[in-house]
Each structure stands twice: as structure tokens, then as C-alpha cells.
Amino acid sequence: MTQSSFAYRLATYMARDTPRAGIVVDERLLDISEALNGGATHGTDARPMSVLDVLQRWDDMHPRLQAIARHARQGRESAPALPLSGIRLAAPILYPGTIFCAGANYRDHVAEMSRALNLPPEPDPHEIGLKPWHFIKASAACVRGPDSRIPLPAYSKKVDWEAEIALVIGRECRHVPIERAMSYVAGLTIVNDLSARDHIRRSGVSAESPFCFDWVSQKCFDGALPMGPWITPLEDIPEPGQMGIRLWVNQELMQDSSSVNLIFSMAEQVSHLSSRLTLRPGDVIATGTPAGCGAARGRFLKAGDHVRIHVEGVGELNNHFTA
User: Fold this and answer.
1) Residue 215 belongs to what domain range?
2) pTM for the full model?
């Protein structure tokens, strides 16, 4: 994809073990606090700006960051530009507000699971009046950055991968119509919505009980949501509804789909969630995973595995798994 002179990626990077907000311009990174302060060094600001700070002031900050990116491409950097190859990136938002995860929201994944479970094909939820369905993941416990090493939970033998495109909210919103919903999204990132498939239900509790599901064990273990490598501003994504999404485990392609297969669109999800509660800057919406998860083939992650996710127009997220 050809980038405009204003295009950039919003990232969190580590400087002497301190997380700081930066923008990636081509293969270089500029510290946002320094760029806004005309190149002042790290020691001059009382607290380095975070990506959450940027998102909370998105309407003001986004055009300023675009200008910094344009000047950098013209050789007029307002702060030292660091080679990206020497930078350690963290999750783009270290501590997101609320993390919403869409379930059963790719046509190919729903069809795959119906076949695996010998169930009849699912009807289109729109046709029977259903709305998008989400669950919530813990923030600080679950989120991990690119290239991090993630211990598999000792209590599970069936941890599954789920490549997902995630929306990052940049403007507070409540009761927004579908046609305006995406204007509240700052940008997109990548997440891996890890799932402990052998802890979907609580043992000893009837499947008919409303208390049978174990959402914490299944979805909220430490490291259950790798995120990154950065946030791509929405306007730099030409077709959010036609983004390729792929996942490899140890170089073997497992998921290969596109956001064209979303059941409920990104806009529908933002609109629906905003009808239930106020969405705030720094909230994240994982929009669902396509076909190719391990559950359908009886294969799960093990210590030593490397997972790579590529989302068209956003980038790549890599993680390694340990015992």
C-alpha cells in the first residue's frame, strides 16, 4: 500500500525500561513528546506522553502527528529519528480501557465450527433479529506486546489461536448510528484472542445451568491477548471491509481470510456496543476471528511454538509461547 506523506503508525516503545509514545514513519521512530517539544530530550518532560494520552486528545493530536510525519519525510524532523530495527515495541496501549471481543462473527469460522460439531448451518443473525455478541477480557493481565514470550497456562492443554482485527476508540461515543460509528474509531491494530478450549464450561455444573460457563479460565489468563505491533490510523486503511488476515503457527498457514467475511461489520459492532454503554478513548474492540482455529482440527499451541499474524494495511504481530 502506498503511504501518503501524512501516514504514520502510533506505537508504544521502551526507552530505558520506560514506556513512551512514538510514531513510526517508514522504518524510523520519533518520540512524540520530543517531537511536540521541538526535540527536547527525555529528561525535560515530567512524564512521557503515552498512547492513551494521545487517544484521549485524538481530535487535536492526530493532525499534529500527521504534520510530524510529513516533516520527517521531508527531512525536517522535530526530534531525533531512531531506526525501528533497534527499538523494542510494547503493546500499543499498555492498559486499554475495556476490551470487547466479538464471538462467532466470521461466516467461514461459523461454518467451520458447525461442520466440526456436526451441527446444521447457522442462519445469518441479521435475518433472525440478533445483534452483535461480545464478551470482555481483562486489560493489564491479558495484554502483551509484539515479540513477547507468553507462558501457556498450566491448567490448560488446549490453548487455541484466534487472529483478529481490533478497533481502537479515539472519541467518546454513546448511542451512535451505524453510518457514523467509524468516525469514533482512531485506528486498527492486531490481537490474538487466545482461548483455553478445555475450560469453556465449569466441571460438575449442568450444561443447562446459566452458571456453566467459565469465561475467566477460558479467556482471561495472563497473556491471553497479545496486541500490536502498533495502531494504524483508520484513514490510512483504504478498505476496512476488505482486509486480508492470516495466521501462521511455526510457518504453517492456519488462518487465511478477509474482513469481507465479517457477519456484523465493524460499524455495526461500534454502534451496538455504544447502545449499551459509553465507549471511551482507549477502549478496544476485537472484531472476531475467521476459520482456521485449532479447535476445528484438534490442534493446539504448545511450548516452543511461534505465531505470526499478518493483517493487510496494519502489519505483523509475532509471539512465542513457553511452558
Assistant:
1) 99-322
2) 0.96
Across the chain, which has 323 residues, the per-10-residue mean pLDDT values are 84 95 97 88 66 98 97 93 96 97 96 86 94 97 98 98 98 98 98 97 94 97 98 97 98 98 98 98 98 96 98 98 98
Question: Is the residue at 16 inside a domain?
Answer: yes
Residue 313: give its domain's CATH number.
3.90.850.10
125-132: long-range contacts, CB 8 A cutoff, minimum separation 24? 125/263, 125/264, 126/263, 131/264, 131/272, 132/102, 132/105, 132/264, 132/268, 132/269, 132/272, 132/273
The last residue of a domain, from among 73, 90, 107: 90
Helix (H, G, I), strand (E, B) or coil at 256: strand
Answer with the one of 70, 90, 110 that is the final residue of a domain.
90
Which residue type does 31 have? D
Q: How many domains does the chain have?
A: 2
Long-range contacts of 84-89 (CB under 8 A, 24+ apart): 84/24, 84/27, 84/28, 84/29, 85/27, 87/13, 87/14, 87/22, 87/29, 88/13, 88/14, 88/147, 89/11, 89/12, 89/13, 89/14, 89/145, 89/146, 89/147, 89/228, 89/229, 89/230
Q: What is the pLDDT of residue 1?
A: 45
